[in-house]
Amino acid sequence: MTSNAALTLGRARRVAASRSGRVTFDVLLAAVCLGITLMVNLSGSESVPENRDSDALTVGLTVLTVGSIALRRRWPLGVLLVTLAAVLALVTVKGTVGAATIGPLVAAYTAAAHSTARTAHRAILAVVLALVLTALLDPVDLSRGGAVLTSGAFAAVLLFGTGTRERRERAAADVLAAGHLASLERERADVERHRALQSATQERLRITRELHDVLGHALSVMVVQAGAAGRLLDTDDPARAREAVAEIERTGRQSMTEMRHLLGILRDGDSEAAASPRTPSPGLEDVDALVARVGEAGLDATVTVRGSRGSVAAGVDLAAYRIVQEALTNCLKHSGARRASVLVHYRPREVEVEVVDDGRGAIAPQAEAVTGHGVAGMRERVAMYGGNLVVGGRPTGGFGVQATFPREATA
Known about the structure:
Radius of gyration: 45 Å
Number of domains: 3
Largest sheet: 5 strands, mixed
Mean pLDDT: 77
Number of helices: 13
Distance between the termini: 66 Å
Helix content: 55-70%
Order of helices and strands: HHHHHHHHHHEHEEHHEE
Shape: rod-shaped
Number of strands: 5
Low-confidence stretches: 266-278, 362-372
Structural class: alpha+beta
């Protein structure tokens, strides 16, 4: 029962909110108000001896005064003018006004609440003029107290109607503004998503090209070692031949590992990059030269190397170098640093690089937003080799970038 009642109530509300529902409501309202008015006026309870007896004219004017509110929301100002004119006509012929005043009151509220601000202002002017004309005509059945009460009633409905309209307009404006803001937020999110996707794609393309160089170098080494091993097989030095074959095996395994990383990266065609001349891929041994170039650009940087270099996978060597390069570039462009220190630490199973500066520590978001090769690019490189990246401000001031890689790339 409760569910059925709720459904019925909801259906009734939807019908009332529709246009046909509003028309039906206005017709019923006019019928009820007209019935009450005729009953009161024809009973004579609101009449005075000076009023004329009810006849076709007074009844017709009463019907026009109250019945016209059935069209109140279709022509708000027109219905108000008709009701006011009909009341003034009743006053002129000395008919009983009485409860017929309900017609102009409902019409005045409708014109103030359900129209534009300009229409509401015209409605207020029409009501004031009607009240002034009524006072000049001096109705026989309107006392001084009744005049004050009538004027107060019109002022109240006009104020209430104006407030209703303003609240509705504010609510509509808020909904419109919220929709516009939501649309802007969606557009901004789409732009940021596209920018992030484009940055990630560009970074992966760059990493892929660099890995292509690493693999090309490894294959060249294998070809040279294979040729040397073939020549040594015809000599009396099998030990050196075995060394060459072992080097081919080691290089081949490392190249296969690099290739597995390469398969995880999408690379679209880049004819311009492919056609450009290639230079040997840099590594951690080139950090000193990198720091020297940074020093010429105005950043006082130092390099500290700990541990023995030993064997480091070519891809790891390149990725670690790029982390240092990116961090120093951010120091120059974004952090406002004057000094920086670079640490390259060769551990037994890991390689650690760390760049610390004395800047303001706001490089990561700016670099990533401007170039697309900031922290996102660093994380991409480190994640490829199962390493670890720590980026952030330091308790003593400045900004630090620390990356740890395994010496040998793992699948």
